[in-house]
Fold these 2 entries.
Entry 1:
Amino acid sequence: MNDTTGLPPRQRLAIKSRETAREIVEDLDGRDECLSCGYTGYIEVHHIDGDWLNNHPLNLAPLCRACHHDAHRTERAVERIQEMKEDFKQLTEADA
Ligand SMILES: [Zn+2]
Ligand SMILES: [Zn+2]
């Protein structure tokens, strides 16, 4: 367990939000798999709208390091992830 008491409030909030996001993504997906390329391994949580306090499941995308890097670097990649998130939403709704 990390001791975050010495950190500034904003940083504590960021850490907490990231932990919550990861839990939500794990619940949502149940797999550690990159939404973009299908890589299974170390997965990061990307906030699609760029707001790391918005932990709505549809704002979260599990991405590998490389795809996450791309998501922050190019507009096109951000669009692609949004499209995939729509597909993903339809898949999860079809499952339910
Ligand atoms: Zn990937
Ligand atoms: Zn991100």
Entry 2:
Amino acid sequence: MAEKSYWKAIRRVRVSLVTNNRVSKGYRAGMRRCFASYGLAFATFLTVVPSGRTSEGDFYLGFPLSNYTPDNAPISSVFDHSMNTQYSKNGTVIAYTGESGDQHSITGCDCYNKSDGLRFVVNGNYTGAVSCGSAYYLCYDGHPGVDYAVVNNTPVYSASDGVVYFPSTFPGVSNAQQYHTVEIDHQNGYRTYYLHLSSRVVSEGQNIIQGQVIGYSGDYGSPGAYHLHFEVQKNGVPVDPYGWEGIGADPYTRTANVNLWNPPLSIVNIAFAPFTANQGDLLIFYYMINNPTPYPVQNVRLGAQIRTSSPQGPWMDDPENDAVVTVTPGTGGTYCGGTTCWYFRNFKTQQAITTGQYDVRFVIVDNTTEQWFDSVESPYHLTVIPTGARKTADLNGDGYVNMVDAAIMMHYWGDTSKPPADINQDGYVNVQDVSIMMSNWYNP
Ligand SMILES: [Zn+2]
């Protein structure tokens, strides 16, 4: 496939990405049509691989309240990381942020202030429970869920796909019916609970999907204190969907708390056909990372390995090519569209290899999960530029690769007349040349 057609396809993908916040079925169908129009088989070009940004793999929660996110919803009671069992009291409340309240100073209120006399921050929208009335008090001791202070009849959504139950009891609560409880069994060990609903609009045994309205918030079982008690249990043990952000180890030891709000970072897989390389050749690797999370930055470690493909040799580490990549949500930057960004990286083969057919693969490590991308399917995302077969990125020959060279390059952008800015001499001035230029910045 001609290089130019390929980049046309890429541009169309980027347009597609702008309108898609998540890799949905519709998105994939659009991608498939797009690539088919260029004679590319979508399946071999691109697959979506959840990298497992938490130890829970690709399980994550949608937020259960309309018009809110985990970051801006008003929290009136936190999950207490100091509790031994749900609703047991030990005189301390610790939020997922590590903020701690240990001075119980208001009679009739199960809330705790802190020695510095300052307000609690939590998610920045912490209100404190109605009974305490302010964010100077952390509430409340042994609380196994998160309370969101929202007005009556706010739509409540299922946090993930599952089956609906109206339990009379659930672990830690013996009188669930008194709170108009909805339980959703996500059938992977996780269950979510929604309490105090003014009404429920689903029925027991019903299969529902993430984001489906299950009822409306209220004060059922807590007269006058309108809020949604949202609780997540894993194998019958409460967990904090915010995870643990405090300094040091999580004091809650019953099970691991992981942030379940963030959709998993997914790598839109780029794979490579065997290629010919020599030691020192420049490999340009470009890949796309889908980062739908509203959370700002994630670090991903890239590691490289190389092997002969014929005869097939063992994978050899190429550790000097390891890198930490900062992945930001797509915000309309140069190579970002919607929530997905393209990343470019140059690698130089470090192994003492001889000319021949090679495979390369990259490991993408995101927190706890490794995902190798092998060079087995598509050549389109790896370019090999042999040593000496490219022009210097110092286009004006002044000894530096700088803005002057960039200006020259941009002047020739897309030109097919093989101008000096076509650094890799493939007939086009394009992002591959930019990638080479950036790798030589100030040092041709
Ligand atoms: Zn509660």
